[in-house]
Specification:
Layout lengths: L16 H16 L4 H8 L3 H8 L7 H11 L3 H7 L15 E4 L4 E7 L8 E7 L4 E4 L7 E9 L1 E6 L2 E6 L3 E6 L3 E4 L6 E8 L2
Antiparallel strand pairs: 1-2, 2-3, 3-10, 4-9, 5-8, 5-10, 6-7, 6-9
């Protein structure tokens, strides 16, 4: 298991507050379902020891690992992260937007407009460094609607076996039922916005 970094911009040394809250929430979700670590390992394909260390905040999840957990718990990544954040205000200031980084895979995710009670959509900014390649085995929620708008750079997105190359200004929209893959071919990083709407 790789060691990754989950970032809360105003955190103090030691386990990051967001990281610690995420670990607690992941353990709660497993217990709520009555699953043992062995059962969760069977459902996600992630080793029991990795899941145990994750729930104790000894490690942070990669984007791919968090994707597997979200699929098991039938949550979008944004919804899961919103569950460990304080209730967001109507105006989400740039310096208060939760930022999550997977340094090993080269992925940075900013929750620009996080999930909120009574609102269906959310807005996420993603940045992939050149060469970054992230695959998700299953959608967190089948039929999830996504609109991916590339702001800078080039992004390759594969959805349901169909590959799409997107350049600045291009938008790809779809409902997610299958595997997906995000890749930055370079030579520069890619920055994109994702609008997510639950089914």
């Amino acid at each position: 298991m790789r060691d990754e970094v989950l970032v809360d911009e105003e955190a103090s040394p030691g386990p990051e507050p967001l990281e610690a809250r995420l670990a607690v929430r992941l353990a709660e979700l497993r217990v709520e379902r009555g699953w043992s670590l062995d059962e969760l390992a069977r459902r996600t394909g992630v080793s029991r020891s990795t899941l145990s260390r994750l729930e104790r905040a000894e490690i942070s999840p990669t984007a791919a690992l968090l994707g597997k957990l979200c699929a098991a718990y039938e949550r979008t990544m944004s919804r899961l992260l919103a569950e460990v954040e304080e209730e967001p205000p109507r105006v989400v200031r740039a310096d208060r937007q939760a930022v999550w980084r997977d340094e090993k895979s080269g992925f940075t995710r900013r929750s620009v407009s996080p999930p909120h009670p009574g609102l269906r959509g959310e807005l996420v900014e993603g940045i992939l460094r050149p060469g970054a390649d992230i695959s998700y085995d299953t959608p967190p929620v089948p039929g999830l609607e996504q609109h991916i708008w590339v702001l800078d750079g080039v992004l390759e997105v594969t959805v349901g076996g169909a590959a799409h190359e997107l350049r600045a200004g291009d938008c790809l929209r779809f409902r997610l039922w299958d595997r997906s893959r995000f890749r930055c071919p370079g030579p520069d990083p890619v920055r994109y916005a994702v609008v997510v709407v639950p089914p």
